[in-house]
UniProtKB/TrEMBL annotation:
Cofactor note: Binds 2 magnesium ions per subunit.
Keywords assigned: Hydrolase, Magnesium, Metal-binding
GO molecular function: hydrolase activity; metal ion binding
InterPro entries, per the entry: ADP-ribosylglycohydrolase (IPR050792), Ribosyl_crysJ1 (IPR005502), Ribosyl_crysJ1_sf (IPR036705)
Protein name according to UniProt: ADP-ribosylglycohydrolase
Lineage: Bacteria, Pseudomonadati, Bacteroidota, Bacteroidia, Marinilabiliales
Similarity-based family: Belongs to the ADP-ribosylglycohydrolase family.
Residues the entry annotates as binding Mg(2+): S69, D70, D71, D327, D329, S330
Cofactor: Mg(2+)
Pfam families in UniProt: ADP_ribosyl_GH
Amino acid sequence: MKAETKYKGALKLAAIGDALGWMTEFEYSNDNLQTKFGQSSIDKFHNWEKTVGGRFNGYIDYLKAGSYSDDTQLLLSVARSIKPNGNVDHDYFSKAELPSWLLYSRGAGRTIKNAAQKIERKSAKWNHNFFTFKAGNNTIDYRESGANGAAMRILPIALANFRDIETIKEEVFANSIVTHGHSRAILGAILYAYAVDLIIPINHNDFNAESYIVQIGQDFQQKFSLPFLNKVEYSSWIHEWNKKSKTTFIEQYNQTLNETQEQLRLIYKGLTGNYSPEKILNELGCVAKETKGSGIATVLAGIYLTCKFYNKPIDGIVYAVNYLGSDTDSIAAFTGGLLGALHGQSVIPEKWKTVQDFDYLDITAKRLLAISEDNYISETDKEIIKSIRDFKLDKDDYKLDDKVNYHPLGSGKIIKIDRQQPLTKGKYNLIVDIEFEIGQTCRFSKLLNGVIPKSNNQKDVIELIKAKVDSSKQADLIENINRMNNEEVNDLIIKVLKSLA
C-alpha cells in the first residue's frame, strides 16, 4: 500500500472520529441520542446544535453535519507549523497559530483555552508558559494539566518525521509544553506519536494486535526516555517546573511511565483474554470523572480499540463514538488516526467523506508526506508575526461575500453571518463563517455591546411577508424574522416568497 493513502487515511479518519465523537461527547444515554439524532447509535453525520458561551451571554451554535472540533482545528494548526525539515516552528505555533485559534475555537476545554490566552503575554514563550487558572472554586496550575489537549494535535509531527523516533519525541515534547505541564499529557502525546510511527509500515493483513502491544511496551522506560532535556531550552523549563512543585518533573514522568506500562499490560491481557471493550476501557479510566480526559487514558483507549477492531476499522471508530460518558471525540480521533494509518483512506465510506474540509485534509496529508520524504519545497518561509489581523470582530460591519484576511489562515470569503440575542440585555453575539483559500472553514464569534442591527434585507423580507402571507400568520413570522435577523435566511425566504403566485 502506498504511503500516501496511509497518510490521508490517518488525517481524514482522525477528523472523522472527532466530528462523529463530538456529537456524542456530552450525551449519556442511547435514548438521548435517539431523541436528538433519530439514532440510538451514531454512525453518520447529522446537523445538530449546542449552546455555547454560558447561560447569560451564550448563543446557539448550529453545526453543519460533519463539523469537527478543536481536536482537528489544532491538529491543522500544528501541521501548518511544521517546517520543510520536519521540525515544528514553536515560536510560530505558540505566538501566531494558538492565539489566533481562540477566535474560531470550537468545543475547546478550559486548559487549552487558558494556555492560548496566557501565551499572548510578552513574558511567555513556547518553553515558558507557566500559568494558573480558576475552575470553579479551585485553582489549577499548568503543572497539573494532564489532559489530552497535546496528544490530540500531534499526529502531523509523527507523519512528517516518520521513522525518526528521537526527533518525534523531542518535537512532540516541545509542542506539548506550550499548553500542558503534567507528564500524563506529555507522555500521552509521545505515546500516540510512537504508536502512529509503529503502525504506518505494517500491512493491515499482517497486523497482530498482541505483537503490536508488546512492541510498544518493550524497553518502555528506555524507549520513552527524554535524552534531549539537557538542552538549554528544556533545562530552563525543567528548572522553572521544579521551583514550585513538591516533586521534580523527572520523578513525576518516571512514575507516569510505570503507570502507563501497567496499563499496557492490562490491554494485552484484555486482548489475549478476549475481554469486552467496556471492561478494558472502564479499567483504563475512560469514564471516571478524574481520568476520563487524561492524556494517558484516552490515548491508550485509542490504541486498545485499534487492536480490538483492527480488521473492522469502521466498527472500531463507531464503538469509540458511542462509548458514552467518555471523551468520545478524542478517543474516536485517536482510534481513527491509528486505523487510518493502518488501512489507508480506501476504507472511508462515502457517508463519511462529507466531513468538514475533506479536501484540505487531503492537501495537508500530501504536504506531510513530502516533508517526511525530504521532497517538500516551501513557497515562502513563514515570518514570526506580530502583524495586524485584518479580520477582527470588534465591529459589526461585515457583509456576505466580503473578502477578508486573517493571520495565519490567510485570505478568505465570508459565507455566513448570524447574530443572536443572549439573555443579557445590551449585548449580542456576532457569528461569522469564513471559507479560507487554503481550504479550511472556520466559525468566528464574539459578544458585542449594543443591539442587533437590522440586516440589509430585513425590510424587504417583512414587506414580502405582508404582501404574500396570510394575515393570521404574519405576526408570528415577522417576530421570528426580527429575532433571527439573518441575511442568509432572509435571502432564502425572499426567493421562496417571490416564487409564490
